[in-house]
């Protein structure tokens, strides 16, 4: 057997182990992945049915102006309503599930030690797991957006965006703004995703990693309603979660958008660094 100067067997290249397409194929075959994407397709259809059934005179008499009131104005409006309805819970759980189930599930099944013995370098394994979780999470977000856009367009027409304050945004401009909203959400939700990823390296229970991250975000969301906390709330991980709605303004006020992106990336970097630091020292043989 030929051995390299590093002690590895000839032909062994760390960068070729656990390639991302291989990891993605493994994840797409799991029932939880299939279930999540099935829900992403079904949710807009269920909401369309609910809006159609609730389109009575009493329902139209609501005096408050919000995205619900204009949800049936066009397919774009319906898509905005779907994003608004899923931001605080549904998408949070999806990101937490894909990121939190990465390492903890492998440890629970006992396959983590065998993956590292393949041998896959420890840090490469974690990088590939992180990348696969990101791809799946963003794909789920894009799926619910595209299904809502197409199904909403068929149900309510492919028209312009009608804002709650009566301003109309042309369809082309509306699609660009929608892309910006989805991009913002993809970055903002990295906070809960990377928190779940860190917890996934700490525990062998996937439910603890997923539940712990979701619970943490809910706590901060509740604290965000306490006005006595003042400017401290601006630094919560849930701050600016609805900043993407600023893209409906004309002209667009980008202050909260920039702050939300930078703050989310900082939180994501910290949680990711903590995950790599803990996993580098973790005993995975027991």
TrEMBL record:
The keyword Transmembrane applies. It comes from the Bacteria. Coiled coil: none annotated. Keywords: Membrane, Transmembrane, Transmembrane helix. It holds the Pfam family ABC2_membrane_2. GO terms for molecular function: ABC-type transporter activity. GO terms for cellular component: plasma membrane. The chain crosses the membrane at residues 34-55, 75-98, 130-158, 178-198, 205-223, 257-276. This is ABC-2 type transport system permease protein.
